[in-house]
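Need the bound structure for S-adenosylmethionine, inputs here:
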Amino acid sequence: MLAEVTRFLDIRPGQTVVDGTLGGGGHCHELARLVGDRGRVIALDRDPAAIARAERQLSGLPILVAQASYCELPLILNEVGCRGVDGILLDLGLSSDQLADRGRGFSFSSDGPLDLRFDPGAGKPAWQLIDQLSEHQLAELIYQYGEERFSRRIARKIVARRKSRPIRTARELAELVRSCVPHSNKHPIDSATRTFQALRIAVNDELGRLEKALQILPECLLPGGTLVIISFHSLEDRKVKHVFREHDQLEVVTKKPLGPTISEQQTNPRSRSAKLRAARRSKQ
Ligand SMILES: C[S@@+](CC[C@H](N)C(=O)[O-])C[C@H]1O[C@@H](n2cnc3c(N)ncnc32)[C@H](O)[C@@H]1O
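Answer from helper R.:
Posting the output first, comments after.
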């Protein structure tokens, strides 16, 4: 949703903007072009692989890259002596590079470890979580974060299976989940999707970080600056919608969330569930 992002951020040469979720650097590259040599993009990602790639591929552009969570933006602005920025973008979820890296467990068919961490240096991998949680805790997690109706059945099967042989790879978990969830022709997504989403949200504390960001990021904007957030599931979108409406310093720019165009959905099927919301920091 590059066109929509740049339209709402309304970037002008010389401005300072933040890409809080650098990923493969597609958005960041365009932001850097728009701010030009007199401006600056501050690009953050928790994933050290995304940072290393950006350092190789985006060198020479006016981009300051740092491995950090977007929640740490105030700290980073302080370090670089910046008192506020003109725009902030959060494009939540996982990147195509993470999905393609078969050593990290994001792809359901991968035989690498079921890790699912954005930052492999922090927290516990998903395989450890499913080894340690009780059946009840697993069912709750899969239900709350995956909105999965068959969560109890999946949790029961994980616990039965791990007694004889622990689950270590994405492929093993995906096969187990598929055997618990009836395939639906109405929803042609892989039936393992919701369980993987739930585990990914848990190991990365995605909702906790988003909540924190929604509290602190408006303060990082200069008056008139814009915050654009693209979310990929209703748990995130509900939080964004609520804070955008309630925050006393934000004016909602998108009355309804925007989705990708038909042609973007065709070229990038993963964009189908994307919802973009934008809000502007009030001038006074
Ligand atoms: C959908 S991708 C971003 C894609 C990017 N906009 C592009 O053009 O390629 C999301 C990225 O956000 C990163 N991420 C997730 N949570 C984060 C957080 N709390 N702080 C910083 N980065 C985060 C992930 O590691 C991933 O690389």
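Comments: The first helix runs from residue 2 to 9. The beta strands are 16-19, 40-45, 63-67, 85-91, 221-231, 250-252, 275-281.
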